[in-house]
Design a protein that fits this description.
The chain is an alpha+beta fold. The chain contains 15 helices and 25 strands. Among the domains are: 87 residues, no CATH class; 117 residues, no CATH class; 99 residues, Sandwich (Immunoglobulin-like). The chain has a five-stranded mixed sheet with strand order 12-13-16-20-19. Helix 1 packs antiparallel against helix 15, helix 2 runs parallel beside helix 15 and helix 13 crosses helix 15. The relative contact order is 0.13.
C-alpha cells in the first residue's frame, strides 16, 4: 500500500484488527483452546469464566468474526488459534448432523444440541465456505442443514422446534410435540433464517430455503412474537420480549423479504423496527428485554439493529442509512474495549481453576472485545434495577461486534449496475473510490476517484441541510465548484448526485456541522447527549466504572496521519 495523509478518524478495518486480539486472547490454551465465554472486569483482579455457550455458539461466533476481521483488515494475528477453533467446531458434530455441547469436567453441563447454538454453527460454516470454498466445510454444512430440516416439526403452513434442546435420542418429550408446547420461536427458529438464507444464496441448497420459508411463516403468521402494532410480545413464554432474538429475527425476515422480492414482508419488518427504535437511544443503546434484563444492553442487539437498518435502507427506506451510521459511530465504536488502564489483572496463573476460570492477563487478552452488558454512559452496567451487575464481556457480543464492523465496512460504498453509492461517511477504501472522512472534527468528506464511474451519489446527513453544501471537483489543473442548491442534484431524499466521475479526480464536499443536544431515555433513566454531527461527544450524567462518551477529543481541524486503506479484490457479501 502507498501511504499518504489521511484523517485520523474512525477506521473500521483497524477496529477489526483490535477485535482479532480479543478473539484469539479468549482461547483457553490449558483446556483445548475452548474459548472463555464471559469476563468480570470490575473484579480485582479481573477474571474470565467458561459457560455452556462455549461450544457451537462461541466457536461459531469466533470463526465467523475472525474470518470477517481478517478480510477487512488484512491482519494475520491469531491464525493458529483460529485453526484450533475450526477443528474444535467440526469435532462437535455427531452422526446425526447436529452440533452438540460437550461435557465439562468442572461443571458437567448436559450434552445436547441447543437450537441457539445451531444458528452460530451454520453462520460460521457459511462464512468459512464463502471464504475458502473448502468441500469438507460444505459437506458439514449440507449435513447440518439436512438435520435442521429433519428434526423440525412440520405442519401444513409452518415448521418449528418443540424444545430448545435436541438429543441424540430425539426430542425430549413427545407430549410437547403433541400439545405444541413450542418454546420461543424467535430464539430457536427466527434467527436461523439469516444464515440459512445466505447458505442457500451461496450454494443453492434447497433444504435451507425451505427452512427459511416455513420459519418465516411461523414468525409472521402464527407465533405472536410480534404484536399487531409491531411491538414485542413481553410474555414470559416469549422471553419477555428479548431484544437480541427479536431484532435478529427482524434482520432475518428483512433479508428473506429482499431475496424473495416481497415488499409486504419488508414493510412488516419496518413496522416492528420503528417500534424497537422508540425503546432505544438515538446513539444505539438497546434494552436487553422489556422486564428483568431491561437495563442490560447487548452489543448483539445493536448489531441486529445495524443489519436490519441496512437491509431496509437497501430496499428504499433510505433514511435508515443515517440511523445506522449513528449507531456505528457511537455505541458500536464506544462498546469496543481499547483502554484497559482501569482493569486490574493478574500476571500469573496461580489462582486459575482448570475448565472454569482464569485470572491470567485478562486485560491484555480481552483488548478489542465488545461490551457484554453496557449502560448508555458506561462500559459496565452496575445499576440497582434488574439483575444488577452481571457480565462485562460475553463472547457472543465479541463475535457480533466484529460482524457489526464488517456490516458497516462492507456497506459503506456499494455498486449496482454502474451506480456507485457512498452510504456512510466513514473512512473507507475500495476499487471504485476512497472516502476520507473528517467528521466529527470538520463537516468535510474527500473522495479520491480510483476508476471512471458512470454515476456517483453520496449520502448527506439530514442535519447538514442543502443550502450551504459546497462541492469542489479537481482533475489535474481543472477545478469546478458546485453546491447543494440545485434541486436536480438530489436523489432518494438524501443523496447528492455527482454524476460521472473520472479516475484521478478529487471531490471535496463540505457542509456545516450540527451542534445539538438530545434528551435520551433508557428504560426510565434520563441522559443528555451532546452531538457534533452524527457523533456523541459527551453525555450527562457521566459513567462511573468505565465512562463512555466522556473522552472523545474533537478539534476545529481534523488530525491527520500517514496511512492507507485495504482494498480487497473480492468481498465476502453478507
Amino acid at each position: 500500500m502507498v501511504k499518504r495523509q489521511i484523517p485520523d478518524t474512525l477506521m473500521l478495518e483497524e477496529r477489526a484488527a483490535h477485535a482479532l486480539n480479543a478473539m484469539a486472547g479468549v482461547a483457553d490454551r490449558d483446556y483445548g483452546y475452548v474459548p472463555f465465554f464471559a469476563a468480570n472486569l470490575m473484579a480485582k483482579p479481573a477474571y474470565m469464566t467458561h459457560g455452556d455457550w462455549d461450544y457451537g455458539s462461541s466457536h461459531g461466533r469466533m470463526i465467523d468474526g475472525m474470518i470477517l476481521a481478517r478480510h477487512m483488515s488484512g491482519e494475520t494475528f491469531g491464525q493458529e488459534v483460529e485453526e484450533r477453533y475450526r477443528s474444535n467446531l467440526l469435532s462437535f458434530f455427531k452422526e446425526d448432523g447436529m452440533s452438540y455441547r460437550q461435557w465439562n469436567e468442572y461443571h458437567k453441563w448436559e450434552t445436547n444440541a441447543n437450537l441457539i447454538d445451531q444458528r452460530a454453527v451454520i453462520l460460521s460454516l457459511t462464512t468459512w465456505y464463502m471464504e475458502s470454498g473448502d468441500p469438507k466445510v460444505k459437506e458439514a454444512a449440507d449435513r447440518h442443514v439436512a438435520a435442521l430440516k429433519r428434526i423440525a416439526i412440520k405442519e401444513r403452513d409452518i415448521w418449528y422446534y418443540p424444545a430448545s434442546e435436541y438429543k441424540e435420542t430425539g426430542w425430549p418429550s413427545a407430549n410437547a410435540v403433541q400439545l405444541r408446547l413450542a418454546p420461543d420461536p424467535a430464539s430457536f427458529c427466527g434467527r436461523l433464517v439469516m444464515p440459512l438464507l445466505k447458505y442457500h444464496e451461496l450454494t443453492g441448497n434447497p433444504d435451507a430455503f425451505e427452512l427459511c420459508q416455513f420459519f418465516t411463516a411461523l414468525i409472521m403468521e402464527r407465533s405472536r412474537v410480534f404484536l399487531e402494532d409491531g411491538s414485542f410480545n413481553d410474555a414470559p413464554a416469549y422471553r419477555s420480549g428479548h431484544f437480541h432474538t427479536r431484532l435478529g429475527t427482524l434482520d432475518a425476515i428483512a433479508r428473506f423479504g429482499e431475496f424473495t422480492r416481497n415488499a409486504a414482508m419488508i414493510g412488516w419488518v419496518k413496522k416492528s423496527y420503528d417500534w424497537a427504535l422508540t425503546k432505544c437511544t438515538a446513539f444505539g443503546w438497546t434494552p436487553g428485554d422489556l422486564h428483568e434484563q431491561a437495563y442490560e444492553h447487548e452489543t448483539c442487539s445493536l448489531v441486529d439493529l445495524i443489519a436490519t437498518g441496512i437491509t431496509l435502507a437497501r430496499n428504499g427506506y433510505v433514511e435508515y442509512w443515517g440511523t445506522v451510521e449513528r449507531f456505528i459511530r457511537n455505541h458500536l465504536a464506544e462498546s469496543q474495549l481499547l483502554d484497559l488502564n482501569w482493569v486490574e489483572q493478574s500476571t500469573d496463573k496461580s489462582n486459575d481453576i482448570r475448565a472454569d476460570r482464569s485470572y491470567f492477563k485478562v486485560a491484555d487478552r480481552t483488548r478489542g472485545a465488545f461490551a457484554g452488558y453496557s449502560a448508555p454512559n458506561d462500559f459496565c452496567c452496575d445499576v440497582i434495577e434488574g439483575r444488577g451487575h452481571t457480565n462485562d464481556l460475553q463472547l457472543c457480543c465479541l463475535g457480533s461486534g466484529t460482524r457489526g464492523l464488517y456490516m458497516g465496512w462492507s456497506n459503506g460504498i456499494t455498486e449496482r449496475e454502474g451506480n456507485v453509492s457512498v452510504n456512510f461517511l466513514l473512512n473507507r477504501g475500495s476499487k471504485w473510490l476512497d472516502v476520507d472522512s473528517y467528521l466529527p472534527h470538520e463537516g468535510k468528506v474527500v473522495l479520491h476517484i480510483r476508476r471512471d464511474l458512470p454515476r456517483l451519489a453520496v449520502r448527506i446527513p439530514e442535519w447538514a441541510g442543502f443550502t450551504k453544501i459546497n462541492v469542489v471537483r479537481k482533475r489535474g489543473d481543472a477545478v469546478t465548484e458546485g453546491s447543494g442548491k440545485d434541486p436536480s442534484s438530489w436523489i432518494n431524499k438524501c443523496f447528492l448526485l455527482l454524476g460521472a466521475a473520472s479516475e484521478g479526480e478529487t471531490i471535496t464536499i463540505t457542509f456545516p456541522l450540527s451542534l445539538r443536544t438530545t434528551q435520551e431515555n433508557a428504560v426510565g433513566q434520563a441522559f443528555t447527549a451532546y452531538w457534533r454531527g452524527d457523533d456523541v461527544v459527551d453525555i450527562s450524567p457521566k459513567g462511573r466504572q468505565k465512562p463512555l462518551y466522556s473522552g472523545r477529543a474533537v478539534y476545529d481541524r481534523a488530525p491527520m496521519r500517514e496511512g492507507d486503506y485495504l482494498r480487497p479484490d473480492r468481498e465476502l457479501v453478507w
